[in-house]
Write a structure and sequence with these properties.
Elements lengths: L5 H13 L18 H8 L2 E2 L6 E7 L22 E7 L1 E10 H6 L9 H20 L38 E2 L4 E2 L2 E2 L44 E4 L10 H20 L8 E5 L4 H11 L18 E4 L2 E5 L8 E4 L4 E5 L13 E8 L4 E14 L4 E5 L7
Helix pairs in contact: 5-6
């Protein structure tokens, strides 16, 4: 019912009694969010459909054969080289349900119908499950809050801390040591063996308080030493020179990108390295770079900042804002090292090919139309080619 100021109520009373509000058909969708990752994965070709298996397994090459200096002797040493390990993740599922009871269906007919609930409820279920999948991609599907969800980014980005046998990162640690379990293997450094160089002075090492005692991720070492280990960067360590992400973002992004490129190799035709930032971090990065580059307003009526909304490229790195990323967090990923696989569908018709649509189906038992959507699959990732950007408090036990 419309409301009016008190002194106008008497003047409008006859109009209110003799007129009805005009309702517009359909509705305005106020649930939309900025979800980037699923769209980008589809563009990269990293969403697989119609896979069917109890689990998804893949081989990882972690060890290289031994190379020695030449010895001028006829008695050579031959070593059986074991290069591979196996990773496995199982399939998991999401579902959503709704119901339209008989009386509600009958009341929602005819000239007074503004929204067709029979059609809306089914479509809304399918759209919402796609949103939830995207919002859970960064999450740990083994944690209590997201139990049995897809094993997203945080499933392999856990840190060594006081809660799992180590110590929490210190104020000077620009990088935190990884310690998690994913796809059947530990992400800890040296899990598969190997060694790493100690050429840098201790004061120049990126991790100074958690016992790494080597140059990692810089320097050189055995391929197996960090074959399954991600980079976990702090954004507020004192060694960056400032205490805020906005002031440190250039240094953090540059260091993180350099370390990931050294791990991945270059010139392989892979898409650009992409950093997905929480919505509160992205504008701070723009604030820094607009000042850093002295971006001015060259003319009126045109774009006066970064030309693509919520996206910019710095040193060959794509920085993008994504609603799904938790506050104060950023993730660095190589597109060709992350993949979503999905089971075959029985009843396609949702907004994405992996969504199964069941209904609306009339149920005599319930006296209602039953509606359900579902999807099954999981993520397959390579932790070595991923990084996390977060305040050091986020890594504490």
């Amino acid at each position: 019912m419309p409301t009016y100021s008190p002194f106008l109520q008497e003047a409008h009373i006859n109009t209110i009694r003799t007129s009805a509000p005009l309702y517009m058909h359909d509705y305005s969708d106020l649930t939309k969010r900025n979800h980037m990752l699923l769209m980008m994965m589809a563009q990269w070709g990293n969403i697989l459909y119609n896979t069917n298996a109890v689990a998804k397994s893949w081989k990882i090459k972690v060890r290289e054969p031994q190379v020695r200096t030449f010895a001028n002797t006829t008695n050579k040493t031959f070593i059986d080289h074991s290069a591979f390990e196996e990773c496995t993740v199982g399939a998991r599922g999401f579902e959503a349900t709704d119901i339209l009871k008989e009386q509600e269906w009958k009341e929602n007919q005819g000239e007074t119908q503004l929204i067709n609930l029979y059609e809306f409820k089914m479509q809304n279920l399918a759209e919402t499950i796609v949103k939830r999948i995207q919002e859970w991609i960064p999450r740990d599907g083994d944690s209590a809050a997201y139990q049995d969800g897809y094993q997203g980014f945080e499933s392999c980005l856990g840190a060594l801390n006081s809660g799992n046998g180590g110590s929490d990162p210190g104020n000077t640690d620009r990088i935190v040591l990884p310690s998690d379990t994913y796809a059947g293997h530990s992400t800890a450094l040296g899990n598969f063996g190997g060694t790493w160089s100690t050429d840098l002075d201790s004061g120049r090492r990126l991790n100074q308080s958690q016992g790494a005692d080597n140059d990692w991720p810089y320097g050189q070492g055995s391929s197996e030493y960090d074959a399954f280990s991600p980079n976990l960067w702090t954004t507020d360590a004192t060694d960056w020179g400032a205490a805020s992400w906005e002031d440190n973002c250039e240094k953090v992004v540059r260091e993180a990108a350099t370390a990931l490129r050294n791990k991945n190799g270059m010139g392989q035709g892979a898409p650009d390295l992409c950093f997905l930032l929480a919505p509160n971090l992205y504008p701070e990065a723009e604030n820094y770079y607009s000042s850093r580059f002295r971006i001015i307003q060259p003319y009126s009526g045109g774009d006066q900042g970064f030309p693509v909304p919520q996206s910019m490229h710095i040193d060959g790195v794509a920085l993008k804002s994504d609603y799904s990323v938790p506050a104060d967090i950023g993730y660095g990923i190589w597109p060709d090292h992350i993949e979503m696989f999905n089971y075959s569908v029985m009843n396609a018709g949702g907004p994405e090919p992996m969504i199964d649509v069941f209904g609306p189906t009339w149920s005599e038992e319930h006296g209602a139309y039953l509606m359900r959507v579902s999807t099954f699959g999981n993520l397959r990732m390579q932790p070595k080619f991923m990084c996390k950007l977060a305040p050091k408090a986020a890594y504490a036990g």
